[in-house]
UniProtKB/TrEMBL annotation:
Gene3D superfamilies: HUPs, Ribosomal Protein L25, Chain P. Keywords: Aminoacyl-tRNA synthetase, ATP-binding, Cytoplasm, Ligase, Nucleotide-binding, Protein biosynthesis. Residues 460-534 form the tRNA synthetases class I (E and Q) anti-codon binding domain. This is Glutamine--tRNA ligase.
């Protein structure tokens, strides 16, 4: 075990206990087992960080296992996206494996079970099976086919495999106990017929193993020591163990299923099925829409792997399901972006400002610091001229003493540039300000060392030089759902809570140094927030996504309501 200062969580305690009881450390092996039926989301990130984190802590291999047992829902696109996301989070898997790699082995074991009288072919309809299943308080009824002879079972099972029957006509069931207190033990289904092409095995197989049959046996084949899954699988553990009992060889590591609580995030949904609905019904543009809780959406939005891993570490793992406030994730994002991004200037709601005493046609390239948090300070040049854009909300004709921005008759500093003073405004016929006229103190240039440059004024505002500014599309996001737990009320469809104002597209102006920014580049737009270059961005038309604001404004809005 690494020399971790913090106390062990309950998962680590289980592992430590097993090591104490004789499991040798080199037998530790974990896996992350996504079903490739959608893109990974923030909930999966927790599971990835848990499993791969244990791998790092114990120097143990971690497999990336695709649970691809339902060809009707699974696709290669999802496999590729999942691999990309795990890699992007910064983890390295040992083997890339697929439940479908084991279809033959699983089939052979199923035959073994039939021969041992532990499995049988049934041809009851789904309805009849459901009726015979009983209820949690009432035992089920044995199927009339439960005592089919081994020969007949072997024959039918082989014909199922050969595609002689229709979907739903026959199934293979484990013969356990129709009176078990655990409903899952009442002769659960092991195989069903599915007529669909599988993204890896094509049409070779007509029968597909159920999750419970495939999962534990896959763990066993890979010699996974600890198989961690979410709490809803707790009642499956008995079945997991029963299936292992049928094939277990004492010389080998016996995998152990243990459960931890699903992680839910406020103001979003974490379910591939629901995220798929958002995509298919056009509520978002794609799986990687920056409003989505998917890893690809968060990446496009400008979140970093470090931030997501820090978030997963901070919330840790729990035994009970609860809702984590998304503002904690945003805090982690802000904390990382603060360290790594360059500070640049952009104006998103521009108003024109003219420095009346600045020489016509003059241009200066002023020195600006890139990132004050960086270990090594670097600088760039920003162009300055007579005509600038400033933020409309940074100017008021008249204001009280608490307004530290530009007003008539008072001074502010232009970031990295000069001290200016508001002189007059030009308005259109509706009274809207179209131009602000100011004068500047030519001796006050930032960093010039003059007395005037050291003069303290009340505020500093950002700007961009109009002749040099680059026009850009800026996408501003809000919560995708207005309700903190859109999934929490079974009476109301989660889509009822979609925020109609979750995306605002505006035109802004950025300093010319951003011309070379490419997809994924991240910045702090000074005084505005963190922004990332979108993949739609081109040299002709730049596009930026707002990643997160500089501070948490949502909590304030909510408490006002
Ligand atoms: P979904 O409903 O979104 O498809 P799932 O559990 O069916 O979720 P899988 O692809 O089967 O998705 O999950 C892979 C692994 O990730 C499993 O071990 C699962 O338990 C874990 N996982 C999925 N969602 C969460 C979550 N919200 N929090 C923590 N772990 C999760
Ligand atoms: Mg699943």
């Amino acid at each position: 075990m690494s020399t971790k200062e913090k106390s062990l969580n309950f998962i680590e305690q289980i592992i430590e206990e097993d090591l104490k009881n004789g499991l040798s450390q080199d037998k530790l092996r974990f896996r992350f087992p996504p079903e490739p039926n959608g893109y990974l989301h923030i909930g999966h990130a927790s599971s990835i960080c848990l499993n791969f984190g244990l791998g790092l802590d114990y120097n143990a291999p971690v497999n990336l296992r695709f649970d691809d047992t339902n060809p009707a829902k699974e696709e290669q696109e999802f496999v590729d996206a999942i691999k990309n996301d795990v890699e992007w989070l910064g983890f390295k898997w040992d083997q890339e494996v697929y439940a479908s790699d084991y279809f033959q082995e699983l089939y052979d074991w199923a035959i073994l079970l039939i021969k041992k009288g532990k499995a049988y072919v049934d041809n009851l309809s789904a309805d009849e099976i459901a009726k015979q299943k009983g209820t949690p308080t009432q035992p089920g009824v044995n199927s009339p086919n439960r005592d089919r002879s081994v020969e007949e079972n072997l024959d039918l099972f082989e014909r199922m495999k050969n595609g002689e029957f229709e979907e739903g006509e026959y199934i293979l069931r484990a013969k356990i106990d129709m009176a078990s207190n655990n409903m899952l033990m009442r002769d659960p289904i092991m195989y069903r017929i599915i007529n669909a092409s599988h993204h890896r095995t094509g049409v070779n197989w007509k029968i597909y193993p159920m999750y419970d049959w495939a999962h534990g046996e896959s763990d066993y084949i890979e010699q996974i020591s600890h198989s961690f899954c979410t709490l809803e699988f707790l009642p499956h553990r008995e079945l997991y163990d029963w299936f292992l009992d049928q094939i277990y060889d004492n010389e080998k590591v016996r995998p152990k299923q243990r459960e931890f609580a699903r992680r839910n995030l406020s103001h979003t949904v974490v379910s591939k099925r629901k995220l798929l609905q958002l995509v298919n019904e056009g509520h978002v543009t794609a799986w990687d829409d920056p409003r989505m809780s998917t890893i690809s959406g968060m990446r496009r939005r400008g979140y970093t792997p470090t931030a997501i891993r820090n978030f997963a570490d901070t919330i840790g793992i729990a035994k009970r399901t609860n809702l984590i406030d998304v503002s904690l994730l945003e805090f982690c994002v802000r904390e990382d972006l603060n360290k790594i991004t360059d500070r640049v200037m952009a104006v998103l709601d521009p108003v024109k400002m003219i420095i009346t005493n600045y020489p016509e046609g003059q241009e200066e390239w002023l020195v600006a610091e890139n990132n004050p948090e960086a270990e090594e300070l670097t600088f760039r040049k920003v162009p300055f001229s007579k005509e600038l854009y400033i933020e409309r909300e940074d100017f008021l004709e008249e204001a009280n003493n608490k307004f530290f921005r530009l007003t008539l008759g008072k001074e502010v500093r232009l970031k990295n540039a000069y001290i200016i003073k508001g002189e007059s405004v030009v308005k259109d016929e509706n009274g809207n300000i179209t131009e602000i006229h100011v004068t500047y103190d030519a001796d006050s240039k930032s960093g010039s060392g003059t007395e005037a440059s050291k003069r303290k004024v009340k505020g500093t505002i950002h700007w961009v030089s109009i002749p040099h500014a680059v026009e850009a599309e800026v996408r501003i996001y809000d919560r995708l759902f207005t309700h903190e737990n859109p999934d929490g009320n079974k009476e109301v469809d989660f889509k009822e809570y979609i925020n109609p104002d979750s995306l605002k597209v505006i035109t802004g102006y950025v300093e010319p140094s951003l011309k070379t920014a490419v997809s994924g580049d991240k910045f702090q737009f000074q005084r505005l927030g963190y922004f990332a270059t979108d993949k739609d961005s081109t040299a002709e038309k730049m596009v930026f996504n707002k990643t997160v604001g500089l501070r948490d404004t949502w909590a304030k809005v909510e408490s006002k309501e």
